[in-house]
Amino acid sequence: MHRVVISATGLYTAPHTISNEELVAAYNSYARLFNETNANRIAAGEVVSCAESSVDFIEKASGITRRYVMDKAGVLDPLRMRPKFEPRGNEELSLQAEMAIAAGGEALAAAGRTGSDVDAVICAASNMQRPYPAMAVEIQRALGISQGYGFDMNVACSSATFALELAVNAVRCETAQRVLVVNPEICSAHLAWQDRDCHFIFGDVCTAIVVERLDTARSTNAWEVLGSKLATSFSNNIRNNAGFLSRCEDRDPTDRDQLFVQEGRKVFKEVCPMAAAHITTHLAGLGLRPPDVRRFWLHQANLAMNQLIGRRLLGRDATADEAPVILDEFANTASAGSIIAFHRHSADLMSGDVGVICSFGAGYSIGSLVVGKR
Predict the structure, then answer these.
(1) What pTM did the predictor assign?
(2) 187 is a catalytic site residue
(3) Which residue spans within 194-289 are E strands per DSSP?
């Protein structure tokens, strides 16, 4: 069994920024228009009126101040309230592939590698642009990875950490020398921007991670993977029912259940203790305790969730240095969130420091990696 490292990461940031102020102005215009159009049905009790949103509400509920998106105009149009993307021909590069190439190229350069050094690509994200051919295979070709294989996978917000375990095990067992994991998240496309309770949650981004053998890594900022742990437990509290059977069920693609929906309070109460217990158990299996961890790179869904997990792990509030937050800038970026935190806040640590990358979300699913700075 080979020792394995995360040798480099990459980040693609979507081109447009939406502030809370801009988002609230667009949403409130939509809400007023909806209420005016449906005034009679609202008065008759047939339709519930739309309550207006506010910057204070968003920041108190989530800790988010802005988000990056692939399209801004469509989201902020009160008559549309969703991104607008132009169709691309089959011979053109797909949108998710374009994002992954940018992030993947940055990660490979940081690792001192090119596409010819990679023999496996895993594209892991909460939604895929198409069912087939796999996005990973398109990305593989575009990056000049002429050998090996690629495949897509989806475990919602835990997709990146689940993919990392597969990558680590492939390198350990010599089924791959070097694996590129990419996480192109276009979360703006499955968000109900007309729903006050969640219209502020998501942003778009792509992260990339190079996983390879310790004895061949060239990076000066490598992290050895000391262990990985995955867990799932079924729950309907976070769900998206859109799929290839929807057209056969004569579903309206604009139906609420064809987009992201969650029972936020239930998720908060159930997932936080699960995540804290998962991390504690994982560390214990490696002879470690939470106080031994120099930094926690947690899933970036909600500030209050991360604060509660930190308190459960450490018995006190975690500092921003111990558990850095990036969701204020990026919002929830599904599986990419913990990887952004790691990408932005890992280079300053010292040799021998231990950290935990952990993501959690729909499923419920939880994935964690304990890593040590080389």
Answers:
(1) 0.97
(2) no
(3) 204-213, 223-232, 238-239, 261-262
